[in-house]
Amino acid sequence: MSRRVLIVGCGYIGSQLAVMERESGADVTALVRTDDSAQALQRMGVNAIAKDVDDVASDLPVCSSKVDVLYYLLAPPSQGKVDTRSERFVRHCHNAQLGHIVLLSTTGVYGDCGGAWIDEGAPVRPVADRAHRRVHAESTWLAAADANRWGLTCLRVAGIYGPGKLPVERLRRQDPVLALAESPWSNRIYSKDLVRICQAASQAAYPGVINVVDDEPSSISAYFMAVADCLGLPTPVEIGLDEAKARMSAGLLSYLRESRRIRNDKLKQVLGIQLSYPTLALGLADIVQSPSAEKI
User: Fold this and answer.
1) Disulfide check for 41: which of 7, 48, 230, 288 has CB 3.0–4.6 Å away?
2) d(CA 121, CA 126)
3) Partners of 8 in the beta sheet?
4) Cβ–Cβ < 8 Å for 26, 5
5) Distance separating alpha carbons of residues 219 and 223, to the nearest angstrom
6) Domains detected in the chain
7) 147-202: per-residue pLDDT in tens?
8) The pTM is what?
9) Of all helices (H) and strands (E), which one includes residue 15?
10) Is residue 159 exposed (0-12), middle (13-18) or buried (19+ Cβ within 10 Å)?
11) Residue 277 and residue 181: Cα distance in Å, rounded?
């Protein structure tokens, strides 16, 4: 009998994961917010249900029967320090029979580490509200898993890039970047590797936290420049921090206030993952060569 998989929040990563799971023989159901998203997944051969998790009166019948694997990929709300979506969904799952949960979180929960190398043993020190929401989501799901004896793997994921997920418009506008000498360390993961890692996490059923990053941290500015070079776009102009505070969005500035380099030893040891794209250069080369390459 094929295992029953439920994917909650089936967007950029979730849709790829749904196809991978379906091709492996799983019985896949995807929960999305809109009818358009559901229809797009159905055209890909994935059973999809349109339900708004934010609607407290909305019934979620997909949680009323046995689910072997639940991938919870739904992003928190855009404001505040509490993930009300996780809270509501957990309440819907009160009587559900869940085998194992794979929760996508973020490496942003570690906050600013001053560029130091860290692993899963580092304490969570969220600074930005977006990171506080993720910490709240982690604690919400962990408490529910403990209370209901569900298995839970929390994947703390770095910045995701991949086909269709590059800062092309920003580079086309020739927005400036923070000077390389001032730009903080950051980490990332290629989308194709992340999808494989999600499935591997569901199969290994490891009860704990795993960081999901590639082998090569770099600065945020170096990332923008590498993408520009790969796609043949103009190299962004570098500006100092004082000018950046006046010209960059609050969202981008919040990322520029945090610096860390994250180890992925546990990812490789516990899940047995060998990254197909361990460096940004390899990932960008794949994007350029793929049928869904960015249109320049």
Assistant:
1) 48
2) 15
3) 31, 72
4) yes
5) 6
6) 4-165+188-214+263-276 (3.40.50.720)
7) 999 999 999 999 999 999 999 999 999 999 999 999 999 999 999 999 999 999 99
8) 0.95
9) helix 12-23
10) middle
11) 26
